[in-house]
Amino acid sequence: MPDYIDFCRVALRHEADWEITYDKSEDKPFQARHRVHHDLVITCADLTVFDTALANARTPAPALNGTRQ
After folding, report:
1. Which top-level group of life is the source organism from (predicted)?
2. Average pLDDT over residues 40-49
C-alpha cells in the first residue's frame, strides 16, 4: 500500500461509522462499508478523495411509517 500511514489516519478518523478496507487487486482499492447501513458502500482510487467522500457522506434518514395523528 503506497500511503499506509495516511490510510491508517483516514481509517481511524472514520472508524465510528465506516468499516474501511484496502484491496490492491481492485481498480478502486480504498473501500468503505457503513456500519449500520451495510448496503451503503464507497470505493475510490484516490485516498484524499476517499477521505473527503467519507467526511461528507450522509446516511439515509429513517423511513417514516406514513401515519398521521
Report:
1. Bacteria
2. 97
Residue 20 cell numbers, joined: 474501511
Whether 62 is covered by a domain: the verdict is: no
Find residue 44's DSSP bridge partners. 30
Is residue 66 one of the residues assigned to a domain? no
How does DSSP assign 21-66, residue by residue? EE-TTSSS-EEEEESSSTT-EEEES-HHHHHHHHHH--PPPPPP--
pTM of the model: 0.81
Find where cell 478523495 sits: 49
Does 56 have pLDDT greater than 80?
A: yes
Kind and range of the H or E run holding 30: strand 30-34
Distance, in Å, from the CA atom of 13 to the CA atom of 55, rounded to the nearest integer, reads 9
